[in-house]
Structures are given as C-alpha cells and as structure tokens.
Amino acid sequence: MFQIVLYEPEIPQNTGNIARTCAVTGCGLHLIEPLGFSIDARQVRRAGLDYWDKVLVDAYPDFQAFLSQNPGANLYFLSTKGGTYYHQVRFRPGDYLVFGRETAGLPQEIMDRYRDRLIRLPMLPGLRSLNLANTVCATVYEALRQNGFAGML
C-alpha cells in the first residue's frame, strides 16, 4: 500500500519493529545504506519476530541509487523541521514515506531539496523527537486511515 524508506537506520530494534509494521500493513520497506547493523543480525530478526519473510525489503547503496531505482516516486519526508503536519497531507496508495537516522534525522541537503515535502508529527515544544519506529507507525496508520484501511480487517 505505502512504501517506507529508512535513510541510514542505525538501531536494529527500530528497523525490526518497522519491518513488523510493514508486514501487518502491507507496506514495502526500503533501506538506504550504510546501515548501522546487518539485516541478518539477531537483534533485527528478533524485533521483527517471524515477519521478515512477509516484508518486501529493498536496499540501496545511497540515496541517489534509491531515486534512480524509484523514478517518479511521490516522496514525503518526515522531520521535526517539517512545516506541514502529517494529517494535513492527502496520502495516496504507493506514496513513499522517508524517515531519517535515529540520531541525526535527514541530511540538510535532502531537507533543502525537498523543503515543500517535509512533514511532521505534532509534539510538545522543547522535546527532541519521537522514537523512529513509533513515528513510522503513526504515519503509516494515518495514511491507511485516510484511505479507508483498504484491504485490512
């Protein structure tokens, strides 16, 4: 239904939890290297439990390779620096939701290039950010809600 893109994820448990979210929602998972772990690592598989074989996972050596292999992708970038709230966007099936590193978010050059595609979740002021896996889950379920949870029970 939607495509989840993790830009240089660092924490295997987050990626495992995100893979599990992808499995139960029918989303694809795209990993942009370098990764802070091996996707064969025990921690990632443990966090994703027995869902890894139910997720289509693609990996790319860098962001440019991702763009080249997904021409015409409708991209939204999640960042605490986004000016539009996630519920204000009209998500459509097939959209790509791009999330940055746990410790640094998205690189400035990507945020500058896609300034009009930056979206955010509302949070109380003065707090850094929400956990990556939680942010992915909240965003995916908002996108699914907007589309009537098509195909889901």
Map the helices and strands.
Layout: E1 3-7, H1 12-25, E2 28-32, H2 42-48, E3 57-60, H3 63-69, E4 75-78, E5 84-85, E6 96-99, H4 108-113, E7 118-120, H5 132-146
Parallel strand pairs: 1-2, 1-6, 2-3, 4-6, 4-7, 5-7
Helix pairs in contact: 1-2, 1-5
Q: In words, what does this structure look like?
A:
This protein is an alpha/beta fold and 153 residues long. It has a single domain (3-146), classed as SPOUT methyltransferase, trefoil knot domain (Alpha/beta knot, 3-Layer(aba) Sandwich). It has five helices and seven strands; from the N terminus they run βαβαβαβββαβα. The protein has helices at 12-25, 42-48, 63-69, 108-113, 132-146, and strands spanning 3-7, 28-32, 57-60, 75-78, 84-85, 96-99, 118-120. Helix 1 links the parallel strand 1 (3-7) and strand 2 (28-32). The chain starts with a strand and ends in a 7-residue tail after the last helix.
Biggest sheet features: 7 strands, parallel
Class inferred from helices and paired strands: alpha/beta
Helices and strands, in order, run as EHEHEHEEEHEH
Relative strand content: 15-25%
Q: What is the correct CATH architecture?
A: 3-Layer(aba) Sandwich
How many domains make up the 3D coordinates?
A: 1
The strand line-up of the biggest sheet is 3-2-1-6-4-7-5
Number of helices: 5
CATH class: Alpha Beta
Average of the residue pLDDT scores: 93
Low-confidence stretches: none
CATH topology: Alpha/beta knot
Q: How would you sum up the global shape?
A: globular
User: How far from one another are the termini?
Assistant: 14 Å
Total count of strands: 7
